[in-house]
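Field reference: sequence -> structure
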Amino acid sequence: MSPRVGLSTERVVQGAAELADEIGFEKVTLSAVARRFGVKDPSLYVHVRNLHDLRVRVALLASAELNDRIGAAVAGRAGKDALVAFAGAYREYVLEFPERYAATQIRMDPAEVAGEPALVRSIELTAAILRGYGLAEPEGLDAARLLRSTFHGFATLESAGGFAHSRAPGDSWPHIVDALHQTLSNWPTYSD
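Structure field:
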């Protein structure tokens, strides 16, 4: 099977990510992507192994995009300024690309994605923020889980319209990030 002229793995994955933005990540299928490019399903198998492979590649693309935004936002910042920039970039990406971001939440086989640059960079960016608070393992892992849970939970609820109160989510956000800063600044130390 020869690759369709103009198609590449990168183009197929980008097309799948754009399709996720339009119809929802869970509705992305190989057939839908093939239709987007005006080809038959078998033409895609030159570029991706199967639907799972395509979804993992979309997840890695979205992770890389998110990390690029976070990296640019935190460059040259430290402490609370870095945390605020990190949190803001994370939230903005989820609000702009909620379905593409949904791809980052799929379960991936650790052996399959070990060493993937997007995932390594995510860990590095988070660890850099936490070093600014003097947190290393094992406290750093717990703090990273708190940050991810908070950013993910807030942004996905907001993008789904889950905050239908009189106070706008954007008004709550700085207070939540400030509370995280206070928590990280006063993280309890572990005793053996």
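Note: The chain has nine helices and no strands.
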